[in-house]
User: Fold this.
Amino acid sequence: MQQLYPPVDDTGPADLEAAYAYPPLADGATWLRANMVTSLDGAVQGPDGRSATVSSPPDRVVLSLLRRLADVVVAGAGTVRAEHYGPAGRPIAVASRSLDLDPAAPLFTEATHRTIVLTCASAPADRMTALRAVADVVVAGETSLDVPAAVRALAQRGLTRILCEGGPHLLAAIVAAHALDELCYTLTPGMVGGRSHRLLEAPTTLRSDWSLGHVIEDGGTLLMRWVARRV
Assistant:
């Protein structure tokens, strides 16, 4: 892997640990980063509905690193189902309004860290009761997820380095709440055509500004890090 930006004098392999290190956080502060991948034509998933279809070996290296650096991995229920999430070395937090989740799934029954479910007060009461038996259910918001409240709830559990892995609807909600601090974005050198979601799927236009942190290249895959510009 070679770092293209910012330019470096050392021509050796890029130091991924340093490139993706979290900034120092004061007591109670959080850092929410997202990790997303698209094909060259902008698809976040292939015909099978999975991001793995548009991924690449360098992307998977960074995915593993980002999970290891995080305190908690957050993903929407649709992503959890499509990507077949299971137990991981870090706590998993699943965001869902409908709570269409199987309490008997390994993500809950075999988790080495108790899985967290982020939902809202209007979620079905029977599903909430069933999930409380196997997960920590956090109610944040009335009819939709209150992103800042959910982040605070994670921070109260000591989970301050937060990694969001999508999907596009959850990521759009996070961006709309001005809660995303960093986007780790991989562009892979292939096209898939067909129909696919964008990085963000939102009913209204969203506007946010970003600064380029780095660009690392490996075999045509571009590994980028973008940091939010706060007003």
Q: What stands out?
A: The CA atoms of residues 37 and 186 lie 5 Å apart. Strands lie at 2-5, 31-38, 72-76, 92-95, 116-119, 136-139, 161-164, 182-187, 210-218, 221-228. The longest helix spans residues 57-69.
